[in-house]
Design brief:
The protein has about 160 residues and is α/β, with parallel strands linked by helices. Helices cover about 50% and strands about 15% of the residues. It is built from five helices and five strands. It has helices spanning about 5-30, 40-50, 70-85, 95-100, 135-150; strands spanning about 35-40, 55-60, 90-95, 120-125, 155-160. Strands 1-4-2-3-5 form a five-stranded mixed sheet, with helices on both faces. β2 (about 55-60), α3 and β3 (about 90-95) form a beta-alpha-beta unit. The longest helix is centred in the first third of the chain and has 30 residues, at about 5-30. The chain is globular. The two termini are about 30 Å apart.
Length: about 160
């Protein structure tokens, strides 16, 4: 490995950590402003009705989801729709971390209610409240733009447990 490769890897790892943290901050801010849609079907409904309000689509899986053909088909369709409508997309791993960030109680604490489907999360601009303006949105958007410039149309992030 050359010096450039080592330094380049460190910058990439640092950038990934920064973007992961920004994504978490963005999701919390969007949740507080009621600008978050959680769930594959709920997300598809919103994008069908008002695609212009969506600013980010987060598609999350873990290793056990890789063999779920139906979920992968949904992801393919959602990605195509997002690309067609200029919506930023991120693929992430770490469903448990997403649940922690969004304060989802465990299924035992949830009184056997159905847990939320964190496989697809949309961040949207809610016209009834102030536009979602936070540095985290810009950071995540820049990361998506940079990835597209490198021909990586669906960038990937790994959310780490904390």
């Amino acid at each position: 490995m050359t010096l450039e490769e080592v330094v380049g890897c460190d910058i990439t790892d640092e950038k990934m950590d920064t973007v992961s943290q920004a994504l978490e901050e963005l999701l919390v801010a969007a949740q507080r402003q009621d600008c978050l849609t959680v769930g594959v079907y709920e997300s598809a409904k919103l994008m069908n009705v008002d695609p212009d309000s969506v600013v980010l689509c987060v598609l999350a899986t873990d290793e056990e989801d890789e063999d779920d053909i139906a979920l992968q088909i949904h992801f393919t369709l959602l990605q195509a729709f997002c690309c067609e409508n200029d919506i930023n997309i991120l693929r992430v791993s770490g469903l448990r971390r997403l649940a922690q960030v969004l304060d989802e109680p465990s299924t035992v604490e949830n009184n056997n209610n159905e847990p939320k489907d964190f496989h697809c999360i949309l961040v949207s601009q809610n016209p009834q409240c102030q536009p979602l303006k936070c540095p985290a949105l810009k950071e995540v958007g820049n990361y998506c733009d940079e990835s597209r410039c490198k021909n990586q149309w669906v960038p990937y992030l790994s959310l780490q447990e904390r």
